[in-house]
Design goal:
mainly alpha, single chain
């Protein structure tokens, strides 16, 4: 082993430690240091506990519908997947993504193992993971553009959002164009992959990553495996993904109205803009499940739109409990259900023995 190799090992170890610890520290700093400065938490708590039974039941119903709709996305991308299988896998992997450092990557591995345990092939699982990831990214890029257009049509343009919306539109157009090229022909898939690989290599080289010389072959394999699924199911996948995102927004809007943030303070289109831009920002997995970033970002955007601070923070926290917090105990229950199911069918496939995702 050379001196350079010996010196690089501690640096590599520290990088891994920082990569694991830093996201959690950022989340704690935002929740403990920033959010309490945005509103009186005592007033926030009084607002939440003041909800009556009917209001709580309404929020629970909207949350249940939101969880259900994401299963349609996975079922659209993975032919033959049942609703119960989609629910079990989705809740377990989401619970992992929401709690474990680098949870998104771990959640993908957990999803793979669970889908395989239900008898789905490695190829089908890989296609489903790629397509659901792509379509969710497309929607996250498109929603800010749609939200800004609605604001402009209703006479509430926000210049601060214009740059981000235009950037999102450009990236979305490029992503869709690349996907169209990849699907169109083998030759175009290889060309697109090779050029993107060269671009990625140039960007990543200063960070010690790459090269990505095999992207042409990878894009070619992606085309061969996905083109059939896309041709048959792209419309269902698009509709299911749109329904899932709009259901998540409906839960935020319901929380705002039930808590007491009226349309005179924050209109539905302003709430959609806040939702869309925070979703876009948190597309990068900076903290597990976007914790801290969503709460602070959403609160800032909604108060900027005109909402009173305490009710807005209360509504955002209720929204996050329903979209983030409840997934963890549900995921634990689903893991137990999966274990029981696999025990009665031991030959079904590989099991998950440790650390057994996101929307």
């Amino acid at each position: 082993m050379t001196v350079t190799d010996t010196e690089s090992e501690p640096r590599s170890l520290w990088r891994r430690i920082v990569a694991v610890v830093a996201p959690s520290l950022i989340a704690v700093a935002l929740l403990v240091g920033v959010l309490p400065a945005m509103a009186d938490l005592g007033e926030v708590w009084d607002t939440i506990v003041g909800l009556d039974t009917a209001e709580v039941l309404l929020l629970v119903a909207v949350a249940a519908w939101n969880i259900l709709t994401y299963q349609f996305v996975v079922m659209a991308a993975l032919p033959g997947l049942s609703l119960s299988e989609a629910f079990i896998v989705g809740q377990i992997s989401t619970a992992v993504s929401n709690t474990v450092p680098a949870g998104s990557a771990v959640g993908v591995g957990v999803s793979y193992a669970l889908f395989a345990s239900f008898g789905h092939s490695a190829t089908a699982i890989g296609i489903a993971a790629a397509l659901t990831g792509l379509w969710n990214t497309f929607l996250k890029l498109a929603l800010p553009v749609v939200a800004l257009a609605i604001l402009a049509l209703r006479g509430n343009p926000n210049a601060a959002m214009l740059g981000a919306a235009v950037s999102g539109l450009v990236v979305l157009a490029m992503a869709v164009a690349v996907l169209a090229l990849v699907v169109a022909s083998d030759r175009l898939a290889i060309v697109a992959g090779t050029k993107l690989g060269a671009l990625a290599t140039g960007v990543a080289r200063p960070f010690g990553r790459g090269p990505f010389d095999d992207w042409g072959a990878r894009f070619h394999r992606f085309r061969l495996s996905t083109v059939g699924v896309l041709r048959r199911r792209w419309l269902w996948l698009t509709g299911a993904t749109l329904l899932s995102h709009l259901s998540l927004f409906a839960m935020l809007l319901a929380a705002l109205r039930v808590i007491g943030v009226p349309a005179t303070a924050v209109t539905w289109d302003e709430a959609l803009a806040a939702f869309a831009f925070v979703r876009l920002v948190t597309a990068l997995p900076i903290t597990p499940g976007g914790i801290g970033l969503v709460e602070v970002g959403m609160t800032g955007a909604l108060t900027l739109a005109g909402g009173a601070r305490a009710p807005v923070v209360a509504a955002v926290l209720v929204y996050r409990v329903l979209s983030y917090g409840v997934q963890i105990p549900i995921g634990a229950a689903c893991w137990l259900a999966w274990k029981v199911r696999m025990r009665s069918r031991p030959q079904a496939g590989p099991s998950v023995t440790s650390g057994s995702e996101q929307r």
